[in-house]
Specification:
It is built from eleven helices and ten strands. It has helices at 7-13, 34-40, 51-54, 70-79, 99-108, 120-126, 155-164, 173-176, 211-220, 238-248, 259-263, and strands at residues 4-5, 21-24, 47-48, 88-91, 114-117, 152-153, 166-169, 194-195, 229-232, 254-256. It is an alpha/beta fold. The protein folds into two domains: 4-127, Oxidized Rhodanese, domain 1 (3-Layer(aba) Sandwich), CATH 3.40.250; 152-264, Rhodanese-like domain (Oxidized Rhodanese, domain 1), CATH 3.40.250. The longest helix is centred in the last third of the chain and has 11 residues, at 238-248.
Length: 274
């Protein structure tokens, strides 16, 4: 199953039975809260999912956005109306930087049919599709969260992959090089990691590049389906975007959920700059 759906295809699918569950996960690290954008307008029937509350556990030793427990994630998804027998479509404002994390988490916890709306809310509204402001109260879903649907890395696994495979750092180049670190208290990157900013996975409108273009981009970085590949970022959100782009390109990849914000909690772990 292709992990993306475009506006036209989604509009048709909303008339099918069962129609997909729509999840709005608009989020911005610097704010404002995504619920504000949701209340100004969202896809009809979409339920808001809070990335910080529902798609991550509390910040701490596991990083800024650790993986939520199976029980907590299951409860949040059932509250949003998610069931195993219904497809799910997730979206954010435009470039899937947050939607990818929800896509990845649903797939990791075993949902078989999850896709991301390519271009997000901006593409939907820009195409003249209907927008709603009401907040639906969906019937509870029956989704059961079972971990292990997608591969994950811990810190030791990330270090080994940087040495023996291909570990992609999804952050902006200046953060990777350690020249600028606006979020975490320590700058730099995991030694051996290769910089691959997620901004280069999409075009200026937030649509993903074609699969062949993505495959060529990652191949130039050494990431192919013949290699063991993984990705990390600051806190495991945009790295999920990298995994999504790699999936579109046909390259399986593991996610280091704790990412840089977990890596730096242990002062014995090495740090590279430049």
């Amino acid at each position: 199953m292709h992990p993306l759906v475009d506006v036209s295809a989604l509009a048709r699918q909303l008339y099918r039975d069962p129609a997909p569950v729509l999840l709005d996960v608009r989020w911005n690290l610097a704010g404002p809260p995504g619920i504000e954008a949701y209340r100004r307008g969202h896809l009809p029937g979409a339920v808001f999912v809070d990335l910080d509350r529902d798609v991550a556990s509390s910040p701490g030793a596991g990083g800024r956005h650790p993986l939520p427990s199976a029980d907590a994630f299951q409860e949040a998804m059932r509250r949003a109306g998610v069931s195993a027998a219904r497809p799910v479509v997730v979206y954010d404002e435009s470039d899937a930087s947050a939607a990818a994390r929800l896509w990845w988490t649903l797939r990791y916890y075993g949902h078989p049919d999850v896709r991301v709306l390519d271009g997000g809310f901006r593409a939907w509204a820009g195409a003249g599709r209907p927008v709603a402001t009401d907040e639906p109260d969906p019937a509870p879903g029956d989704f059961t969260a079972r971990p292990g649907g997608l591969p994950v890395l811990d810190a030791a696994g990330a270090a080994a992959l940087a040495r023996d495979g291909v570990l992609l750092d999804a952050r902006a180049a200046e953060r990777y090089r350690g020249e600028k670190e606006p979020v975490d208290p320590v700058a730099g990157h995991i030694p051996g990691a290769v910089n691959a900013p997620t901004s280069e996975n999409v075009d200026e409108s937030g649509f993903f590049l074609p699969s062949l273009a993505l495959r060529e981009r990652f191949a130039a970085l050494g990431a192919t389906d013949a290699q063991h590949v993984g990705a990390y970022c600051g806190s495991g959100v945009t790295a999920a975007h990298e995994v999504l782009a790699l999936t579109i390109a046909g390259v399986p990849a593991a996610l280091y959920v704790g990412s840089w914000s977990e890596w730096i909690t242990d002062p014995s772990r090495p740090i590279a700059t430049g």
